[in-house]
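Researcher: Please generate the 3D structure of the following complex. Treat every line as part of one assembly.
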Amino acid sequence: MEGTAGPYDASVRIVMKRLGATLNDPPDWSCCGSTPAHAVDHAFAAALAARNLSIVEKMSCATLTTPCPSCLSAFKKAQRRMAKNKVFAGEVNSLLDAPYNCTVTAKSTLQVIYEDIGLDEVASAVTTEIPDLKVAPYYGCILNRPPEVAGFDDPENPVSMDRVLEAVGVKVVDFAFKVECCGAAFGVPKKETVTYLTAKVLEMALDAGANCIAVACPLCQQNLDLRQAQVNAATGGTFNIPVLYFSQIMGLAYGYSPEELGIDKCIVSADSLIRSRKPMDAPVEGQEAPKKKAAQGE
Amino acid sequence: MRVGVFICHCGNNIAGTVDVARVAEETRKIPGVVYSTDYMYTCSEPGQDEIKEAIRREGLNRVVVAACSPRMHELTFRRTVEKAGLNRYFFEMANIREHVSWVGENKEANTNKAIEAVRMAVMKVMQDKALYSSSFKVNKRVLVIGGGVAGMQAALDCADGGLETVIVEKSPSVGGMMARLDKTFPTIDCSICILGPKMVDVAQHELITLHAYSEIEDIKGYVGNFQVKVRKKATYVDWSKCTGCGECMEKCPGKNAYDHFNFGVAPTRAINIPFPQAIPKKAKIDPKFCRQFLKGKCGVCAKVCPTKAINYEMQDEIVTEEVGAIVVASGYGLIDQDLLPEYGGGRYPDVITGIQYERILNASGPTSGHIERPSDHTEPKTIVFVSCAGSRDKSVGIPYCSNFCCMYIAKQAILTKDHVPDSQSYVFYMDIRSPGKGYDEFTRRAQEEYGARYVRGRVSRIFPKGKKMIVRGADTLLGTQVEIEADLVVLATAVTASPGAAQLAEKLHISYDTNGFYVESHPKLRPVETNTAGVYLAGAAQGPKDIPASVSQGSAAAAKALSLLSKDMLESDPAIARVNTNACVGCMKCVKTCPFQAIKEEVLRSGKTVAQVIETVCAGCGVCTATCPCGAIQLQHFTDNQLLAEVNALCQM
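Model: Done. Output below.
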């Protein structure tokens, strides 16, 4: 999060602070293992995840939240297997310095905002409206799946991000590819897979009438934003659609600057869209029109 | 006491893992046993003859057979001993097959267990008392629950056999699902054309009483004498006056009522007659959509009705019917599209269900038989059928096959080509299941003559793109992913138990399986009986079924009811609870715990209040005997002494 997904990290911290939630960083946290670890060895992968869970357990925190669905998946899978299978738990704990007792619940940041903080709270903090923004909410393939592991929202037609974005006053389009795969880590070994799959997601977002895609996963953001030029090169397309983290959009609605939220770091510029934002309590009719015009002129 | 014991080999079923000869030998040592032998098949005719012969030769007065479960052959052997002159309750069965040989592999342990089981049975049989059944009169009327094709067939057969028959139908008309279908497979004959005459017969038969728009409120009683309370739901139209002219429906301003008959393909009026051939053809008001009920003013129907049949004050009415047998033909339901979010979960207007498409195809349906997309009323050219939408899918909790979808999809593909000759149908399937007579030829015809393209694989997602619906799925024969741009998608949604099936089962005291379908008495040999005497099953209430199977089962259930009610008197089971009035303190705890309301208060001539068991109602469950604080109620044939004799036999070994 501190590296390639810096803007996600920054925006989540800002938004959570605004919503009154205290985030405690686990000291000495380490990599969750991600895809490479579980592809090699399940016990090893679980141990990498459980090491972090065990640190959180020692902090006497009941909930671990991560904005990244891949980390989340690693934590939830480790938790589930260790709680269900004592032999497996023993095997994992033997790899750890301190055993993990399965008392921590891992939740995505989106879930914490949607379920624990609640939409009323989310809506009450809004100070700014962004009238030009029409968002396609893109959840990615593992945030809500598999359902028995994720245990959050609908695996085929999730709605939590839709509701959160609507609560901060943003227009959300009906998007059919909410949970389509972006190609994930195939960007490295087989770029064509990612360009092919990403192109479909981008195209569907445009077809649905969106001018921006909201994501909840650093890898989705990377594939859709960073590789958009590669998609254009490979498919002859002319995609130019900004891809923002849902937390960045929330931050904008709460009146933070694009720089604070890391929106200036996007490859596909979102400037033209977010220029339309204005404070909620100054809805002066005369000023709205020229602003909009300027935005469209960009 | 002279007890004879017969150990059955049951071929290798028992003898394979139990040393039956040793069981017979050990049994001979039990005091009271004067004869013990083993036999290949005791239930066979020579086997039974052997028992009768031994009773005569050895002067036996008690018999034990160690064989299979008493559920299989207890009645067989009771009859055998009765024929040889013993009371039929001087017989016990030791279950050494289901309880012993089938569940254990260790022959030594099995043999010991079998010996113990036989010893228990011997001790019990020596305590058994002679019991005599009494007989009671039967009510020669039949209740049929559900007026679909299975229920109507059962009712017509019963009535033709001379029995007065009552049909209780939940919806305003008989006809059920079949009345909604356009054509039927594999002959493509018009569904309502063949069903209509049956519906008319039901209406006109002298011996059939029809309670439409009614539900079962409560059922009391027992085989031969059921008392059924029927709730006649308020229609707000006096059906004795309504002529079915349809004037009210035409003028009704409540134009957005949900059309249950058409599964919501198009709205109907708040006052409506479900379909032109409805039996009875009477109007009813849906208060959820009626302005008179919602806003308190309107009254248009009351004004236009030529016979003044409208009554906004109408209340539900309870009528009681007394019958001797009940046929349950309550039909099936369909899975809610909400459970299929990957197919849109009902969000997309051009993704519809098979039964909705059936109404679109139907000449008397909302589109008058013209195939139209619900979204923009254009004629679709590419139609995709998705079979197993929910069926055979454990993730939505439906592990079973819905039985008739493969066939109706083939039919709908054929009809689509007939209606729109330049159309192309695609069918996504897992397996084509068409085992009926003429069925496989039919599905082949859909492919070969009507050009329906069958794609073997499941659909993973359906999503809109412009005006088209994109159907993405796997073609497992080509090993590739396919995407079809469809104008209309038809889901063969899974068949489920009918809504309210569980509550009805509880009223009937019959059982249902994990999927909500009613359980037959034996899956092969008693397919229409239930475990409650006098209650029979017909149609899809027992499991998904097509029309021929439903009709067959309707007739079969009628045959069972007819044979039951061909007798004037039925014999009661004497193995019921009996109160020892000397010991009874009149606390009446048993009255509260009896699940069958079979116990009542009685005042003796001495003035003492005691409990009394109503013989014909008691089912012999034994709850009262466990409740009674002073042991005053004893279940005959399972008295404390008899059961303790078994326990002692087990503990003394």
